[in-house]
């Protein structure tokens, strides 16, 4: 068993640099609430589209672990609410792979996840986001990872995003 406060935190956080300070919970809850409320508005038909920009980002948060400055998975909360209203896809365009979003939906066929990010062989989170990770069980084929090599410029980025958008559209 873990001994000491720092070791015990490791059971809830997969990295050692995600700080928890006095305002962390309020900020994380605010982001999650904004994403969930946006999904409620879309689900109710009050809005066709809603853009939510939050910090912390959320896409690294897993089922029972925080990390990568993510405490609640904002996009996953919204996606999970919307699955009863039609097809749902999460397109993650961040230099770091959204491991939490992938892991939360990895065995599900009701949410397609796509991520365009730097190659995790040399970039955080290091353990997740490789092209061969396509889902498992019912979710097999419902996860797409498009990895980009270091130094990718606009000429390399645009086709990668276009390919991911095409897969999202096909879903």
Features:
single chain; 171 residues; alpha/beta; 3-stranded parallel sheet; 5 helices; 3 strands; globular
In short:
This protein has 171 residues and is α/β, with parallel strands linked by helices. The protein has helices spanning 5-9, 24-43, 74-82, 99-105, 154-170; strands at 88-93, 111-118, 143-148.
Outline the biggest β-sheet.
Answer: 3 strands, parallel
Number of helices: 5
Beta-strand percentage range = 5-15%
Q: Estimate percent helicity.
A: 25-40%
The largest beta-sheet arranges its strands as 1-2-3
Pairing-aware structural class of the strands and helices?
A: alpha/beta
CA(first)-CA(last) distance: 44 Å
Unreliable stretches (pLDDT < 50, length at least 5) are: none
- Outline type: globular
Question: What order do the SSEs take from the amino end to the carboxyl end, as H and E?
Answer: HHHEHEEH
> What is the number of beta strands?
3
Radius of gyration based on Cα positions: 16 Å
Mean pLDDT metric? 94
Walk me through the structure.
- There is one protein chain.
- This protein is globular.
- With 171 residues, the chain is α/β, with parallel strands linked by helices.
- Helix 2 (24-43) packs parallel to helix 3 (74-82).
- Helix 4 (99-105) links the parallel strand 1 (88-93) and strand 2 (111-118).
- It has helices at residues 5-9, 24-43, 74-82, 99-105, 154-170; strands at 88-93, 111-118, 143-148.
- The mean pLDDT is 94.
- The protein starts with a helix and ends with a helix.
């Amino acid at each position: 068993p873990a001994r000491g406060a720092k070791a015990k935190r490791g059971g809830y956080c997969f990295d050692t640099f995600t700080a928890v300070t006095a305002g962390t919970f309020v900020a994380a809850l605010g982001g999650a609430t904004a994403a969930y409320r946006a999904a409620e508005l879309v689900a109710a038909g009050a809005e066709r589209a809603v853009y939510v920009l939050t910090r912390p980002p959320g896409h690294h948060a897993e089922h029972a672990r925080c990390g990568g400055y993510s405490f609640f998975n904002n996009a996953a909360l919204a996606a999970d609410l919307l699955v009863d209203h039609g097809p749902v896809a999460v397109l993650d365009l961040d230099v770091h792979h959204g491991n939490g979003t992938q892991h939360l939906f990895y065995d599900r066929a009701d949410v397609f996840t796509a991520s365009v990010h730097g190659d995790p062989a040399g970039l955080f989170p290091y353990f997740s986001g490789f092209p061969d990770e396509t889902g498992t069980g019912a979710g097999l084929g419902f996860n797409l990872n498009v990895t980009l090599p270091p130094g990718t410029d606009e000429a390399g980025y645009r086709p990668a995003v276009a390919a991911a958008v095409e897969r999202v559209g096909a879903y």
